[in-house]
Amino acid sequence: MSLLEVKGLRRDYGSLRAVDDVSFTLEAGGILGFIGPNGAGKSTTLRILATLDVPTAGTVLLDGTSLVDAPDRARPLLGYMPDRYGTYDDVTVREFLDFFARAYGLKGAQRNQRVDSVMEFTGLGPLSEKLTTELSKGMRQRVALGRTLLHDPRLLLLDEPADGLDPRARIELRELLRALADQGKAVIISSHILTELAEICDSCVIIEQGRLLAQGKVEDLLRQSAGTSRVTELTVRLAAAGDEAEALWARTERTLLEQPRVKDVSREGSALRVRLELEADAGPAQAEAAAAALLAALVSQGLPVCAFSPRERNLEDAFMTVTKGRVA
Ligand SMILES: Nc1ncnc2c1ncn2[C@@H]1O[C@H](COP(=O)(O)OP(=O)(O)OP(=O)(O)O)[C@@H](O)[C@H]1O
């Protein structure tokens, strides 16, 4: 039996079906990404898993206990971090965590020990006497994460925890989550920022308009979405700098677009992303031959190509494939 088993989950708000027949499982020690655009039903699902809302239909078992029938028994097993996190004015980090430790029913020495241990784990120790309102967004996020850990839950539900964090804070959050998973906790993390989840999660669920469109291991989703496409993509970089660079980029773009198989070309950071359309039955050998012809065309025009490689598919591509581009 999995730690979490969600089956046929549905939530209707009047005539709106916010969550429609969603099923998935999660094992202890696993990190599951819950991906979907705005309004897909992520927060609604997480709120139900946090026992803050009840489903219209479906079952949710956490360690064999029904969240719907016995929420009081399931609650000690889960920690929930909502997408909007409010701090109280005029409380220090320690006071904030201590307040929630009391709310979780922790007492005396055990309460102090849990607050200390959470502050140490989240690296908040040196900030314990700082007011929560004076903290950076990344540090406030750690306080919010610490709050969900006080009662040592087995399942963590994190609604868009990386939203608005700078890259360093994101990497630190990822390391904290990995450490929690290594301790055997199961983590669900929702996001509409796809690329950030690929690095954090073991598996993913893709949801749109309440419906589950795909689920599986991140690498399997990437492989599946690649298999459904007859388009192959390349990254091209130029050795171009200074005043001439812009003209060279433009000339390269034009040359690429003149080639018969090129479907489109777009700038992606300091590179060009080229989409090649191949025959329906094209295999890897045809894709390589088409790429070689393209490179030859660029070089024969004297364009200073310094890198030319297949573009790695990322979670965003998988998402666009399974949602058929209906959502961005
Ligand atoms: N309490 C509510 N009453 C009525 N409709 C609701 C309620 N909560 C959510 N909805 C609707 O349900 C749908 C799913 O919303 P939800 O907040 O779960 O999406 P989400 O994937 O978390 O999106 P976001 O990324 O914007 O938070 C939306 O159409 C939303 O307007």
UniProtKB/TrEMBL annotation:
- For the keyword Repeat, the answer is no
Question: In this protein, which residues make up the domain named ABC transporter?
Answer: 4-234
What PROSITE patterns does the annotation carry? ABC_TRANSPORTER_1 (PS00211), ABC_TRANSPORTER_2 (PS50893)
**Pfam family, any one:** ABC_tran
Q: Which UniProt keywords apply?
A: ATP-binding, Nucleotide-binding, Transport
**Family, similarity comment:** Belongs to the ABC transporter superfamily.
This chain's protein is named ABC transporter ATP-binding protein
Species in which this protein is naturally found: Corallococcus aberystwythensis
